[in-house]
Amino acid sequence: MECENILDSDSATLSTVNRSEMQPQRTIRSIFHPSDFSDASEVAFAHALKLTLASRALLQMMHVETGVDNEGDDFPRVRETLERWKLLPAGSSHRDVGKLGIEVHKVIASSNDPVKACLNFLEINDADLIVLSVQQRDGIMRWLGNMLGNIVGEKIAQGSGQMTLFIPNGLDGFVSVNDGSVRLKNILIPIVNKPRPEASVETTLRLIHSLNLPTGTVTLLHVGTSESTPIVDLPESTGWSWNQLTQPGDKSESIVQVARDLDADLIVMTTDGPDRFLDGLRGTTSERVLRKAHCPVAFIPVERIDESTDEDEA
């Protein structure tokens, strides 16, 4: 089912992983996708819609009008996309969308502050996953980082961290806009002792499970020494190969280079939060990886347990 709302947003407001802990346990019930109607956002929309279908979830699409939008812009056509993906027949209705087990809400907000608009909306509308496009250049991360930092920080404080999937502008990602097919064969998970790697491993397992991906390779990378490498109990009987790699070097540069060498389709990173994420990712390993990555990057924020620990996130 699709519906559209128009809002005045200023008024709307050494670590061990056990196999038992790595089963796909978290359920994605709602996905939030802010859109600026650009071509890059269209790619992010394809990922959001595919993950919504895989999770049989609610997709909340939001556009913030700031007074400089081009006339004629519009949300991506959900039914048109589903018909192109051969999931709905030509000439389908809104009711047919609901038969796929998903619900779609389209929200248009009017505000000079996109951050405030998104925050106001998410104050009263839960989201387990955020999917959005991002440009890889200096400065562009500031408002996105602040928005996501506040959202994720609040959710962590409530004990429910949420994943954010960034699709770098200009990349096709792992979901085809044309037919909805998934090209996800190589996943890289950078790991450190703190924050612990459980969340990244569990999220990757959930993704493999929900998208019904039969085979592929997951590489767990630790940039450092063998003595500092986290002890990770790798999952079995997934159909995927799970490998571990340890190498010295600069964290962000090593992660980006290994991702290129492996031809990774996705990087999954655990980030330390909430207060580090509230800094908008600026100056962190996560931000530096996101600026240079050649593939989508997923951030999974986890609550900091030991405040005396100063180890940067993966």
Helical content (DSSP H or I, runs of 4+) = 25-40%
Low-confidence stretches: 4-25, 138-143, 152-161, 274-282, 304-310
- Compute the CA-based radius of gyration: 19 Å
The number of helical segments is 8
Q: Order of strands side by side in the largest beta sheet?
A: 1-4-3-2-5-6-11-10-7-8-9
The SS-based structural class is alpha/beta
Strand content: 15-25%
Output the CATH topology of the largest domain: Rossmann fold
Instruction: State the major sheet.
Output: 11 strands, mixed
Which oligomerization state do the chains in this entry correspond to?
single chain
> Care to count the β-strands?
11
User: Can you tell me the number of structural domains?
Assistant: 2
Average pLDDT rating: 77
Q: Assign the CATH architecture of the largest domain.
A: 3-Layer(aba) Sandwich
CATH level 1 class label of the largest domain: Alpha Beta
Compressed to H and E, one letter per element, the order equals EEHEHHEHEHEEHEEHEHE
Shape: globular
Distance between the termini: 39 Å
